[in-house]
């Protein structure tokens, strides 16, 4: 899109206030941590020490609200250590502007590279830079520097202790992730009743898998209710799709289709009940009507063939999901037969999450992978370092004082992609103006003493925690008021704050935006690479499933499972990249928007067809399929060249695969699920080739096929 449209869209996104469910108990606990350390320091120390300790408690409390599956105390302690280290090093270098500038350049470069580890690590690193810039103005000696750094660490330690002493809904995030996955399966089942080829968003399943990764200590304390339903949700999805599909399942119309709709509705009801049980830790409440549908009828419409096998598997998996909730099963109105009490689901091995010491080498390897010029993370780190240094020099040279506000605004705004950087820049400036003006007005009217300023600062922190998730503009307004009151604690008047704070925040925002415009990393240019990776991952998933059909005795469920996860991750990477690319003011010269949509539809169909074939994997004692082996061999031969052709903008040719599918259908009579799946798979790959073929004709044909 043009630059003007892109700027309008990002500005609108930055000024949007989202509706988010507040977490008042968590907000109260984190606010209490800030209040405790400030009260202690004001009583037994000095206002300067109160400000230092408040920064540590504030940052530790803020990071503990981020989406992470690690224990909250670990995050709080990690923030405390990082803030203390950055503060002490900043103090040591503060006597020389040149030395501090060198330290700032190196530290911000490392902070930018921390995004390679994950968003929470990137946010923690950003907080360390911000605190380094703020607190170096407070102490006057090395001993004072050590004292302030220690107090910042104490602030984080207090937050960690509060989390341990006053736990609020333990395992709540893991419960929510698993319940969301089950609810997504229920919604998918309902949509399949009306649209047999409905799209399923795998993000809830990916979140549930991330939440299920535990350290050995966590695994010993995890509730049994969180042990099995995730694996069952993963296995339910292909069964639901196979049952509803009009090609490999029941006919599109007739009594069998009515029976399928009833089964899908009952499955949705059961999955919703299990999701509520997991989320709230209560019993599973099942309506008798759903249980009646899930019994094999003695008369009436009966399923046949592949649909019948899918129905039996669906009923068995739903029974395991109810039993795996580890809660008593209760009927809502009348008693019906329930599964035997002595039946228990098979044990599920937990996914291993590395402990903190083991995480260090993994983080180092992640940073090394991104430490290259072509990496968006690497370029973000260089851009962040340059902007922070320029902002510090300009802020120091200007006569307003508080020169650190300009680089701090830049550091807090900048993200590795265009849309977030620009939207946060607008939100930061507008929110800061609102927060600073509100704080200045209150200060001018009340003339509060340091204790009242501290109380007002705590109130701003509480509002920030309470409205976390509503938007960066709200957070910026709360932070603006917090800084005004915090500086009032150490005796700085509001009249010294407003002008400098607003002007330097604007300067920092403009520097961040200008840096991205002059030194961009456009996601649009990576679209073909993402498509190629998705094609490769889909191909590996298809090969794993076909190999299981070709050699049932030697099949490896783990191989199929890992290939599915890789395909799912590749699709998510493509969707994220395409979403960010839509907001950028550039165009891809080799991939139009219509071709992009058609290619996405073709690869999504390829993954769905493979999932249908996975739903009908043969038993280990089933005879091998020579046709599946030959089709897999042909695909394995064509796939690497097709991936490179997609990257290099060469035409794709799937003729050998189409001929192999036709020969397989002729040999086996075109009646098996796998044979029909191979034909559908070939059609999807032909659509991909048409979408990416040079010239408008091929792209238009693919767009019409994609609808």
Structural class: mainly alpha
Mean pLDDT: 83
Largest sheet: 2 strands, parallel
* Count of DSSP strands: 4
Instruction: Enumerate the spans where pLDDT stays under 50 for 5 or more consecutive residues.
Output: 328-349, 696-707
Rg computed from alpha carbons, rounded to a whole number of angstroms: 29 Å
Overall domain count:
3
Spatial gap, N to C terminus: 23 Å
The fraction of residues assigned to DSSP E strands is: under 5%
Short description:
By secondary structure, this protein is mainly alpha-helical. The protein is 72% helix and 1% strand. The model is unreliable at 328-349 and 696-707 (pLDDT under 50).
Task: Describe this protein's structure.
By secondary structure, the protein is mainly α. The chain has 3 domains: 22-168 and 377-518, no CATH class; 173-201 and 225-334, no CATH class; 523-706, Up-down Bundle (Methane Monooxygenase Hydroxylase, Chain G, domain 1), CATH 1.20.58. It has 28 helices and 4 strands. It has a two-stranded parallel ribbon. Strands 2-3 form a two-stranded parallel ribbon. Residues 328-349 and 696-707 have low confidence and may be disordered. InterPro entries: Memb_transporter_dom, YccS_N. Residues 325-348, 575-597 are annotated as: Disordered. Keywords: Cell membrane, Membrane, Transmembrane, Transmembrane helix. It is found in: Cell membrane.
List the helices and strands and how they pair.
Elements: H1 3-15, H2 24-44, H3 47-63, H4 72-93, H5 97-113, H6 119-135, H7 142-165, H8 172-194, H9 203-212, E1 213-214, H10 216-221, H11 229-244, H12 255-280, E2 284-286, H13 288-293, H14 305-324, E3 329-331, E4 351-352, H15 356-370, H16 376-397, H17 405-413, H18 418-446, H19 450-466, H20 472-489, H21 498-518, H22 527-550, H23 557-582, H24 593-614, H25 626-647, H26 655-668, H27 673-691, H28 696-706
Parallel strand pairs: 1-4, 2-3
């Amino acid at each position: 899109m043009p630059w003007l449209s892109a700027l309008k869209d990002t500005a609108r996104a930055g000024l949007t206030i989202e509706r988010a469910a507040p977490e008042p108990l968590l907000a109260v606990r984190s606010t209490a941590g800030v209040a405790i350390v400030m009260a202690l320091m004001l009583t037994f120390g000095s206002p300067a020490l109160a400000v230092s300790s408040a920064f540590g408690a504030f940052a530790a409390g803020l990071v503990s609200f981020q989406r992470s599956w690690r224990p909250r105390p670990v995050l709080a302690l990690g923030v405390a250590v990082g803030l203390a280290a950055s503060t002490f090093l900043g103090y040591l270098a503060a006597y020389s502007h040149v030395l501090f500038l060198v330290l700032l350049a190196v530290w911000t470069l490392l902070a930018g590279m921390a995004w390679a580890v994950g968003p929470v690590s990137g946010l923690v690193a950003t907080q360390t830079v911000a605190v380094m810039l703020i607190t170096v103005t407070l102490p006057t000696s090395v001993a004072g520097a050590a004292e302030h750094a220690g107090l910042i660490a104490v602030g984080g330690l207090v937050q960690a202790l509060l989390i341990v002493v006053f736990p609020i809904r333990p395992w709540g995030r893991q419960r929510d992730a698993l319940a969301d996955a089950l609810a997504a399966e229920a919604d998918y089942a309902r949509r399949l009743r009306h649209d047999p080829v409905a799209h399923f968003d795998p993000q809830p399943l990916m979140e549930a898998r991330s939440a299920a990764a535990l350290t050995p200590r966590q695994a010993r304390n995890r509730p049994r209710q969180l042990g099995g339903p995730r694996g069952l949700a993963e296995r339910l999805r292909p069964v639901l799709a196979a049952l509803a599909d009009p090609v490999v399942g029941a006919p599109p119309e007739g009594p069998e289709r009515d029976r399928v709709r009833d089964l899908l509705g009952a499955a949705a009801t059961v999955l919703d009940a299990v999701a509520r049980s997991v989320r709230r830790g209560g019993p599973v409440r099942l309506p008798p009507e759903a249980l009646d549908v899930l019994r094999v009828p003695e008369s009436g419409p009966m399923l046949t063939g592949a649909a019948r096998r899918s129905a039996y598997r669906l009923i068995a998996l739903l029974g395991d999901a109810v039993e795996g909730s580890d809660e008593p099963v209760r009927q809502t109105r009348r008693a019906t037969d329930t599964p035997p009490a002595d039946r228990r689901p098979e044990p599920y091995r937990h996914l291993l999450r590395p402990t903190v010491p083991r995480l260090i080498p993994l983080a180092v390897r992640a940073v090394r992978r991104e430490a290259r010029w072509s990496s968006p993370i690497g370029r973000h780190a260089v851009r962040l370092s340059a902007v922070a240094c320029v902002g510090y020099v300009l802020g120091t040279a200007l006569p307003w004082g508080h020169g650190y506000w300009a680089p701090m605004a830049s550091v807090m705004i900048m993200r590795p992609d265009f849309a977030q950087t620009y939207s946060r820049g607008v939100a930061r400036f507008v929110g800061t103006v609102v927060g600073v003006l509100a704080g200045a007005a209150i200060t001018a009217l009340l003339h509060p003493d340091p204790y009242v300023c501290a109380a007002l600062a705590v109130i701003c922190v509480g509002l920030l925690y309470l409205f976390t998730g509503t938007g960066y503009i709200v957070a910026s307004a709360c932070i603006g008021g917090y800084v005004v009151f915090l500086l009032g604690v150490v005796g700085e008047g509001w009249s010294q704050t407003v002008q400098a704070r607003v002007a330097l925040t604007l300067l920092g925002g403009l520097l961040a935006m200008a840096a991205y415009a002059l030194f961009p990393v456009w996601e649009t240019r990576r679209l073909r690479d993402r498509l190629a990776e998705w094609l490769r991952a889909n191909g590996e998933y298809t090969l794993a499933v076909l190999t299981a059909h070709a050699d049932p005795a030697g099949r490896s469920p783990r191989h199929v499972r890992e290939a599915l996860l890789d395909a799912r991750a590749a699709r998510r990477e493509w969707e994220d990249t395409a979403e960010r690319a839509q907001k950028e003011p550039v165009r891809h010269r080799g991939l139009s928007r219509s071709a992009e949509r058609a290619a996405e539809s073709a690869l999504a169909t390829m993954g769905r067809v493979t999932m249908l074939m996975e739903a009908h994997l043969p038993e280990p004692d089933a005879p091998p399929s020579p046709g599946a082996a030959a089709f897999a061999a042909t695909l394995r031969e064509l796939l690497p060249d097709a991936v490179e052709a997609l990257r290099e903008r060469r035409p794709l040719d799937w003729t050998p695969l189409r001929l192999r599918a036709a020969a397989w259908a002729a040999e086996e009579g075109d009646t098996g699920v796998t044979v029909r799946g191979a034909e559908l798979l070939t059609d999807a790959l032909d659509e991909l080739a048409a979408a990416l073929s040079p010239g408008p004709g091929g792209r238009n044909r693919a767009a019409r096929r994609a609808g």
